[in-house]
Amino acid sequence: MIISCREVVPELKAAGASWIHFDEPTLVMDLDSHKLQAFTEAYSELESCLSGVNVVVETYFADVPAEAYKVLTSLKGVTGFGFDLVDGTKTLDLIKGGFPTSKYLFAGVVDGRNIWANDLAGSPSTLHVLESIVGKYKLVVSTSCSLLHTLVDLSWFAFVAQKVVEVTALAKALAVQKDEAAALRGSDHCHATTVSARLGAQQTKLNLPVIPTTIIDSFPQTEELRRIHFEYKDKKISEEEYVKAIKEEINKVVKLQEELDIDVLVHGEPERSGMVEYFAEQLSGFAFTINGWVQSYGSHCVKPPIIYGDVSRPKPVIVFWSTTAHSMTTRLMKGILIGPITILNCSFVQNDQPRFQTCYQIALAIKDEVEDLEKAVINIIQIDELALRKGLPLGKSEQSLYLDWAVHSFRVTHCGNFGFDEKLLSIFHKGVQYGAGIGPNVCDINSLMIPSAEEIAERTTKMLTTNVSWFNPDFILETHKHTGVKLALKIFVATAELLCTRLAEVKKEKFE
After folding, report:
1. pTM for the whole thing?
2. Could you say which residues form the signal peptide (predicted)?
3. What distances in angstroms separate CA 189 from CA 144, 348, 404, one per listed residue?
4. I need a surface site. Which of 76, 115, 418, 499 has the fewest CB within 10 A?
C-alpha cells in the first residue's frame, strides 16, 4: 500500500490536487500498540512524497480511543484531522483536552449514515466550542463520514443533497456567528424451561433424524417470478392472479425438496422481493422510497426502509404463505422470519429515541408473528439475524451494551435456534456452554465450486455436538438458477447421510 501511495500521490499533484484525503476508520477500533506503531511508521515513510500538498486524515463510525487520538494527532506532514462527531461523541472531549496548533479540524457534525435532518440548533454550539479551540480559520464543517450510505435527494428527508446544504448552512452560520417496549420485563427474554428440557420435548414431537437437513432461506428468484412481482406492483395483474402464481412457485419448491429428501422444508419465499423490505412493508412505522437505492457492497445496492415512528404489526406477515406451503406436504414446514436486529440495522432509523427502544418494538412485532405461526401449527420457526454484526460498535468498550440489548431483543421473539458459520463455532470449542442445537452452514451456495459430499463431511465432522446439529447450505439460494441449486442440494443431502453413517460407526466402536 505504501508503494502504491508513492506512485499515486505524485500523479494527484501533477493533476492539480491541493488536498489529499486519507480514510483511516480502523483507528476507532481498539488497536494494539504495535499496530499503532505500524500506522505511525507508514505515514513517516510517506512524509517526503506528501510534502507540497495538504493532507487530511479522516476517522469515522465511532469514537477514537485516547491512545489512537494521540498517535493520529502527532503525525508529521499532515495538515488536518477529521472526526465523526455524530457516532463519536466522546471524541469531542479528546479535542477539548488538546489539539495540535496550526492544524485543521474537520468536524463531522452532519450525519452521513442516516437520512434525518441535522440538528441546526445543537450543531452550531458544538462548532463554536471547536472554533474556540482551533481558531475560526482552522475549522472545517464536514459530514461524519462518506455520503454513500444515504440517498441522493428527496423532499423532507435529509438525503445527500440536503446534507451538503446543511454543511454549507452550518459553515455560514459559524462565519456570521416508547410504551410497551419500554416496559419489557426480564421474563420477556427468558424461557420458563431449560434448553435440555425444550430439546427433549421438541425431539419427541418432531422426531428429527440425528442430523436433520434444511435450507436457510430463499429459492431462486427467476425471471418469471420477477416479472410477476413487477406486474403485480404495477397493477397489471390482479391479486388473485398474483396469489395463484406464487402458490404454483411454492408447490414447485416443495416438490423439489421432497424429491431431494430434505427433512424440514421451506416455502422458498417467492412472495418476497426484498429480505428486509418485504417484512417492513407489513409493519406500521415504516416508510419507503421508490428509487432510494444505497450501495451495500461492491455493485450491490439495496433500498433501506425508513423507520419514522412506533413499530407494530397490524396483521400477520407470512402466516398465509407458510400454512399454504404446509398444506402441500406431509413433512415438517419451517416458517422463516427476519429478526429485529437485522430489520433495525438494515433500515434508516429514527433518531429521536434510543436504537434499542426501536429494536424492542420490532421484536414485539416479530413475537406476535411467531405466536400466530405456532397457532397455525408451524412447529419450526427460523429467525434470521444476519445483520447482527453490522450494528456492532467498533470500540470494544461499547460492544457489550449493544450485544446485551440486541440479544434481549432476539430473545423477546421466543426463538431459540441460531445458524453459525464454521469460524463462529470455535467459540463453542473454547468452552462456552451453549446447550441448544446449532446449524453450521456447510455448503457455500454463492460459490460456483460445488464440493463433494466427502469434502463437506470432513469439514463438518469437527463441528458435531451431542445435541441436534442442523445441516444448512450457506446463505440464500435466490441468486442462483434451479438447476445449480438442485445439484448442490443433492450433494448436501448425501453429505448428511454420510455423516449419519460415520456417527453410527463411531457409536458402535465406542460400545464394543
Report:
1. 0.72
2. none
3. 35, 26, 11
4. 76
